[in-house]
Amino acid sequence: MGRESETNPFLQGNFGPVRGEDDFSELRVTGELPRELNGTYYRNGPNPAFEPKGRYHWFDGDGMIHAVTLRDGKASYRNRYVLSDGLREEQQASRALYPGLLDLGNDMTEAPRFKNTGNTNIVFHAGKLLALMEGALPTQLRACSLETLGEYDFGGRLRTAMTAHPKVDPETGEMLFFGYAPIPPYLTYHVAARDGTLRRSEEIDIAWPSMIHDFVTTRDHVIFILCPLVFSLENMATKGNPFCWEPERGTRIGVMPRNGGNADVKWFGTDASYVFHPMNAYAEDNRLVIEVARFGRLVFMDPEAQRQPQGPEVNPRLHRWTLDLAGGTVKSEPLDDRIADFPRVNEGRVGLKHRYGYMAGAGAHMDSTPLFTEIYKYDQQTGRRETHDFGAGNGCGEAVFAPKSPAAGEDEGYLMTFVYDAAEDRSDFVILDAQNVAGDAVARIEIPRRVPYGFHGNWVAADQ
Prior knowledge:
Elements: E1 23-24, E2 29-31, E3 39-43, E4 64-71, E5 74-81, H1 85-93, E6 121-125, E7 128-132, E8 139-141, E9 148-151, E10 167-168, E11 175-180, E12 187-192, E13 198-203, E14 215-217, E15 221-226, E16 229-231, H2 233-239, E17 243-245, E18 251-257, E19 266-270, E20 274-284, E21 287-295, H3 303-307, E22 317-324, E23 329-334, E24 340-344, E25 356-361, E26 374-379, E27 384-389, E28 400-403, E29 413-421, E30 426-433, E31 443-446, E32 457-461
Antiparallel strand pairs: 1-5, 2-31, 3-4, 3-32, 4-5, 6-7, 7-8, 8-9, 10-11, 11-12, 12-13, 14-15, 15-18, 16-17, 18-19, 20-21, 21-22, 22-23, 24-25, 25-26, 26-27, 28-29, 29-30, 30-31
């Protein structure tokens, strides 16, 4: 049997891992770094430290944080592994010890071994830098050095996993999040105060156990998206796959008042779909507007199905649901026909009405792997879409917004992302003007080697 890295596209090219941990200072800059940008951009992603012991899924890799610090017009870079207990164990053995997602059900004689990779997102709240994956506790890192400090359970108060996509309320400073599981309780909602104290946990009744990757909030609501990707322990035992796609269930959207609880959740039904990443939600005239990157069908953890030709419904596109809170109806409408994911807004508009949103887009360059080569800016007031195209083969990631100042307007700021230079086999950290996305980059910071494609990140200003 050959090595997995010789045949799996998610272990090759710029999806492949980098095993070194480096520090680069005084990086070369093309253009000019905005002097008002003082802080650090952190980005997380999967980066397996060892050759996989079996089949590899992109979600399996060990977390690696890539950090670019901007200060006084200069830039530096640092990367470190999220050093989990499982990774420490593997380092001592000098080989992979844990099965990946695709092999979890192969041996049902004992419970599958599970590693908290901390590989999906990285957030900063109440002075703590947390690396997140949705199946485990967060992992705390030291902000300056990226040293791993260990799993963080909010002083013993957090007894579930934590989503990789918490929401920080821009008005209250609270961090809102949830945890889900394949066994009861299937869904638990949590609230951490501005000072980081976990002050509320509420179990939520749902119709079936599902992989709930993300959610949305508004000033007065918490909104859960229950898609028909169903956990099935029976299926794991017979097929080695813990998930079933059951579109006959449809998609259910649960709305809970922020000051209410499980008994107050109202459920709305719409067509079957899957959402990894919402853009934002807001309330307007007794309606809730929810914008998401929507898959019509999810081919997940089925490598054979993924190798077959698929219809357009298996790729995400920007979509809007409008919920009539009084009438109980859902209006479902596509907003764009281009393939796009990783939606973001200005963090100051989370849960509030937004005009602008940003996504990573595939353009004409998407193939069987999720290669995004464009950044889109959507103006929901005019319906206009602006595009910055990095070129075929030059993959980009999620575009994170950084404001020019605390008092800046909604799009007065910059978009940041890593971009892979396929011709030179290295990466740049690119800063775009959010008010002129289609224009030339404001600055390109040359990283001396490549930064593998990853998942999510955030900008943390120096004064946060």
